[in-house]
Predict the structure.
Amino acid sequence: MNATVLNSEFDHIRPYTNDEIPEAMQRIADAHEVGNIVSFLFPEMKLTEVRDLIRSIETTEEFQKLLAMKSVQKVVKQTTKGVTVEGFENIDTTKNHVFVMNHRDIVLDSSLFQIALMDHGFKSTEICVGDNLMPTQFFVDIWRSNKMVKVLRGASIRETLQNSLIFSKYLRHTVTSKHESVWIAQRNGRTKDGIDVTDPALIKMFAMSATGDILTSIAELNIIPVAISYQIEPCDWMKTRELFLSKNAPYQKAPNEDFQSILTGIMQRKGNVHIAIGKTINPKLEACKNLPNHTIFKGIAKLIDDEIVSNYKLFDTNYIAYDLLNQTDKYASHYTDEAKEQFIINMNEKIAQIGLKFYPELCKIFFSIYANPVFSHNSRSQN
């Protein structure tokens, strides 16, 4: 492959290079949106001081160290009881990987993973982000300065296929030629109902840039599934509302709803958070060798699902919700009466934000979001 041609082909989706960082920092520093985030992230600094700090940044590494990491660390300190991580031994440091993670929060899933990697001496990865989160130049500059890759959503089938092909080629180029790893969510959009399932279309997209057979092309990406678990589900009441409203009609997002979800996910308390880095699926790909072409992508997706579900950490909130939903005390040994009472109080406060007219149905949906990981774990254990 011709690197010059490839780089030109990817210019509209790739992260910024260090040569492009200073100009992007000038735009960010001058943007009025900066004032909206300073009070939360840098309350001890004046706006002029933050703007000067931003203008002084010259590389992606500096951007991540001076802004991105500090911002996420502050969110962790203020809104969580701590983040635990396991599975670093599963990362082969002689290779680059595509980390496929379940998707619970728009920003925090990938951000917390990056902090975990860097805190343990690993390089940060490139991060795949939908173009719906880049509505203005300010957000384009923020994301692309932070090693984020723009995932284009096509308006037509033809555009979607073309965008997917370019993205697939870029992904393979990044892992095999740029020698960088990549983070990507297992599906388009967050999991709303608590059931983590990899979209087979994602695997099909991975294979679009294949030069050989499908399994060899997938193995070349060195896919590692990663599971993130939140004791308190980010945006749980917003997800409850969306699931309720979408039962009888397609859900229509309000203007700026994605950014409201981002802010809610960042600001809402999350309790304990756990990240589990699984094992590469490469040794298991052989099991998909004899699958028909129309099911091979589902087979590979299931390998990822199995690893994510088996590594997902079940918290007391998951067991409480399961017992409340099923009117049982099956998992009572996994939580205290005080924790159960507090869970119900928190749920009632959140449902009140939606409205109490359909309280029983909203409770059932809310419980299901937390209980479904228990169902998934039990289902996998029985297979």
The CA atoms of residues 316 and 328 lie 15 Å apart. Residues 359-382 form the longest helix (24 residues). Confidence is low (pLDDT under 50) at residues 1-6.
